[in-house]
Specification:
The complex is a heterodimer of chains A (about 325) and B (about 375). Chain A has about 325 residues and is α+β, with helices and mostly antiparallel strands. Chain A is built from six helices and nine strands. Chain A has one domain. The radius of gyration of chain A is 26 Å and the shape is elongated. In chain B, strands 1, 2, 3, 4, 5, 6, 7, 8, 9 and 10 form a ten-stranded antiparallel β-sheet that branches. The interface between A and B is large, with 71 and 72 residues.
Chain lengths: ~325, ~375
């Protein structure tokens, strides 16, 4: 009978459609029971656990501000131990372990440098070695040699770029939109250091500065910041890696998930290195409720170290 | 078509519709995270805006997400004194001619290029005018005789007696300053926070100073960020109604929370550190600061603050300072400070040197004629 046939066809069609619909719906938050092939990935599809485990991000379309650019606003922090040493490093004790035990010790870490090694000019390596040997010494008794000794981080000096981005402290990217949005601002908890990023600017650095002269632009969904005009006294890490006044850094910030930016920096300094070299690591979004930067104004922690020799001592 | 066939066709159509709806909803763009509000933790109602403030004026300056737009680089330098000087009677606003004369008198007094008063006074004037912000020799455009707008007499209200403990702290700081003025400081702690390069004009409320009177404001959804030039910090102010941090977290710059009242950004700041001399030596435990920012026109922001502390003043008082957009060809520079703070080694090293040569400290409470 035609009506019964129609009912059967309709039922089959319904079932097939239901199955297809359910299969296409994203399985948000599903835990894979067994390892699967790395996902080719559509935005919104859950990636395989294996892909996550080897640091692969599935394709991602970021949330945007009203001007169409990805919204990078947030509190960010890295998890690498590159501030101890950009290259491969083993765990190390801190200063005076006979007094402090584990306090002050450093973890092991793998190099964040593409290719593993920083391409120093052979004659420039000697200064890195000297930096490392004198990293925990200071001498501010003579203006001319004021900056000769000691890791500037230890002295609570502004860390420069890119070091500020891999110090173990959070920072906030402040990104505006609209006609007034010719500036971005990056505020670091460490020493309350601040960078102003001039968007789409062709102005050259008028004067050297500790945090450099930053000019930003968008390349697709990547924020590119060109940084020049550095004070030469900043270091890249506690291992004594350093640069000259010709340092040129090009940073790339790419949103790769709602909770991660992929950070890359190309470092160029013909006085110190044989060629440009790159570092790369993720930045993680702080997700604690009501998170904010607190103060790490570390200047008072260093005053006795720097100036104690000039303090009046009671006559003994 | 029969009823049954309509039903038979209708069911798949419903399934299609439901399935499509589910697909569309699951791929909807992520909405912004809603910030939690906790109205019980909000500060008590802040004091009302001062009379005649432009807070009620409409403003067309808006960010694309609808907040009033305060962005840009602004300068707050002015010669108008905090308190109404004697000699202008009870006038709170001067006419054009009076204002010019007022401005000239103050400019002459403040100028670092003067050479009168003797060599010691001359030396105490320190840097000459080249290094100063020349905008600090101009009175405010509204020709007021004081930055204080309330109380109406333009003066800081009467003080209340302070505790013995606070008096002791003030005496210790005064003694340290006297040693410093005499060129014989004992330790780096004898210097004030600006000389130690910890904070300077970035500790609110904001006041004009000899130079570097610039502030950069950048906004993003849910935040207003104020970056004063000295000392290279940024005050990140949520405007989403979240509570202050816990009372055991104290900060040099305090903890700020903002909200919009019409076109005005109202900021309340708490959690100041008790071990520093905050504004006008108030008591950090009871000091309350409320600031208001209102965009007046393309070149002007109206900045007002009200301070109250029942342990210091008999009543709250309010200050109004115009902020002017800087020349677009100019910019705010990095003010590094601590990284090259030769002052501390020079002052301390010099003092130890003088002691070695047998000099004895003759403390000087106040340096003559220094502005």
């Amino acid at each position: 009978m035609p009506n019964r046939l129609l009912s059967v066809v309709g039922a089959c069609f319904t079932i097939c459609l239901a199955v297809v619909t359910l299969a296409l719906m994203p399985a948000a938050g599903q835990q894979a029971a067994t390892p699967q092939q790395p996902a080719a990935g559509q935005p919104g599809q859950s990636p395989s656990q294996h892909a996550l485990d080897v640091g692969q991000f599935p394709p991602y379309k970021p949330a945007r501000l009203p001007d169409g650019h990805p919204d990078l606003n947030g509190y960010w922090q890295s998890l690498v131990s590159a501030d101890w040493d950009l290259q491969d490093h083993e765990a190390q004790p801190g200063p005076k372990p006979e007094l402090n035990g584990v306090y002050g010790a450093g973890p092991a870490g793998q190099s964040i440098v593409e290719g593993g090694e920083i391409p120093y000019r052979p004659e420039a390596l000697a200064k890195k070695k000297k930096n490392f040997e004198t990293r925990a010494m200071v001498d501010v008794s003579n203006d001319k040699t004021w900056h000769n000794l000691g890791d500037p981080e230890m002295k609570c000096y502004m860390p420069g770029v890119p070091r500020a981005n891999y110090l173990p402290y959070p920072f906030r990217i402040v990104q505006s939109a609209g006609a007034s949005s010719s500036y971005m601002l990056i505020s670091y908890e460490f020493a309350s250091a601040t960078r102003i990023v001039r968007m789409n600017s062709k102005d050259e650095a008028p004067i050297p500065s500790w945090m450099g002269w930053s000019r930003g632009r968008w390349e697709g969904d990547t924020l590119v910041i060109d940084v020049t005009g550095f004070r030469e006294e900043t270091w890249f890490d506690r291992a004594g890696d350093y640069h000259s006044d010709e340092l040129h850094v090009v940073e790339r910030y790419t949103p790769v998930s709602p909770f991660h930016l992929m950070y890359e920096a190309t470092i160029e300094d013909p006085k110190v290195f044989t060629r440009p070299w790159k570092i790369r690591f993720p930045l993680y979004r702080h997700m604690e409720k009501d998170f904010q930067l607190l103060e790490f104004k570390c200047q008072p922690f260093t005053e006795e170290m720097l100036y104690g020799r000039f303090v009046k001592r009671p006559a003994s | 078509m029969t009823h049954r066939s309509v039903v038979a066709l209708g069911i798949p159509l419903i399934v299609i519709a439901f399935g499509s709806l589910s697909l569309v909803m699951s791929q909807a763009p992520q909405t912004a995270r809603k910030a939690a509000t906790d109205t019980q933790s909000r500060a008590a109602t802040p004091p009302a805006a001062a009379p005649d403030s432009p807070a009620a004026k409409p403003s067309g300056f808006r960010t694309p997400w609808g907040d009033p737009d305060l962005q840009g680089v602004w300068n707050d330098a002015t010669s108008t004194p905090l308190q109404r000087p004697t000699g202008v009677g009870s006038k709170d606003v001067l006419n054009g001619e009076e204002a010019e004369e007022f401005q000239d008198q103050i400019a002459n007094r403040l100028s670092r290029d003067r050479r009168d008063g003797g060599s010691e006074v001359d030396v105490n004037r320190a840097y000459n005018e080249h290094w100063m912000d020349s905008r600090r020799l101009k009175v405010t455009a509204d020709h007021r005789t004081s930055l204080i707008v309330d109380p109406p007499d333009g003066n800081i209200p009467p003080l209340v007696p302070i505790s013995a403990e606070r008096q002791k702290e003030r005496d210790e700081r005064a003694a340290a300053l006297a040693r410093f003025n005499a060129g014989m400081p004992n330790t780096y702690l004898d210097f004030d926070l600006p000389i130690r390069c910890v904070v300077r004009t970035d500790m609110p409320p904001y006041m004009p100073i000899i130079y570097n009177n610039d502030f950069q404001i950048v906004q993003s959804p849910g935040y207003v960020v104020i970056a004063p030039e000295m000392i290279h910090s940024a005050r990140i102010i949520p405007v989403d109604g979240r509570p202050h941090i816990g009372k055991n977290l104290r900060e040099w710059l305090g903890d700020s929370r903002g909200h919009w009242e019409g076109n005005t950004l109202v900021i309340e700041t708490t959690n100041f550190r008790p071990d520093t001399n905050i504004f006008q030596d108030a008591d950090a435990a009871t000091f309350r600061l409320t600031e208001r920012f209102t965009r007046v026109d393309a070149r002007t922001i109206n900045y007002e603050y009200t301070v109250e502390d029942p342990h210091t003043w008999t009543r709250p008082w309010t200050v109004r300072i115009p902020w002017t957009r800087i020349d677009p060809a100019e910019q705010m520079y990095e003010y590094a400070c601590y990284e090259d703070n030769y002052d501390v080694s020079h002052f301390l090293g010099g003092a130890r040197d003088r002691e070695r040569r047998g000099e004895v400290a003759q403390p000087i409470p106040h340096l003559p004629s220094v502005q």
